[in-house]
Amino acid sequence: MKNNIGKRGFASDNNAGVHPEILKEMISVNVGHVTGYGSDICTERALSIFKEQFGSSTEVFFVFTGTAANVLGLSAITRSWNSIITASTAHIEQDECGAPEKFIGCKVLTVDTPDGKVTTDLIEKHMHGFDFEHHAQPKVISITQVTEMGTVYTVQEIKRIADYAHSRGLLLHMDGARLANAAVSLNVSFREMTTDAGVDVLSFGGTKNGLMAGEAICFLSQGHSQYFKYIRKQGMQLASKMRFISAQYIAYFHNDLWKRCASHSNAMATVLADELRKLPGINITQSVQSNGIFVVIPREVAERVMQKYFFYPWNEKTSEYRLMTSWDTTEEDIEGFISLLKEEL
Q: Which domains does the chain show, CATH number per domain?
């Protein structure tokens, strides 16, 4: 399955291809010579669209990867003596190979959560040592929307965390790798759950929702992006042919392509979850609020099914697995998966 080109599974929305409308836009800008490093009309248009989506004061910088978006965005608002507080399941703790500690140089402090969502009560244990030189100074709370557990923060929950952070002189960072799925789940605009909710810095992703490559670091509150162009360059993330990242976002926002893709992947997760609930010995462990399903499957059954429909284990001790749907998942994919799972059970 891992090397079976053309076959769709449920391992990750990263595994899906590029949406045809994204490819079409990239081809359309592949004409003639254009000034590099973002000094082109395509990038200018993309940046203006972000301002339309998130607010006129938004400052946006494109990078290649989600890791770069998180790490460089956080590096702009921290110093080496600071700490970043996040969920123990967060990407910056579990999936960035220690990049925040290496490139930012500050501590990452975690809280354990049952559903991937941090709360002010959980954060409180790290709220000490302010102005004490022997203690790393808390500076940023980082949340993920959609969380790594497939759950979604409500707008009110985000506002509560933002108010809590700001009242203590902290900033709020959001890892928005699946922000489109959250917007669809909540039926709100991007701005409502970011800028208007008090988020200061946003890592905005699209590669899990139909883009080829390229993420956006969005500074939503003023005063944090002044020197970021130098941080991006030193971080080796300044694209010379920037227009090919920019073009993707022009297509992504045009006619709400982002919403169509995310709506489909969320809907497919709901269909898959409904079918899984009908099977004996299968237990869904988290609320299905986006395009991720966490499910307990007997290990020997899962291992056989994975030979045809690959997916990842989440907790091997409890035989819990993660299933992800994508913008291109079909009902036929789900029918085939469920049929095979039934046979193996």
A: 20-256 (3.40.640.10), 257-344 (3.90.1150.10)
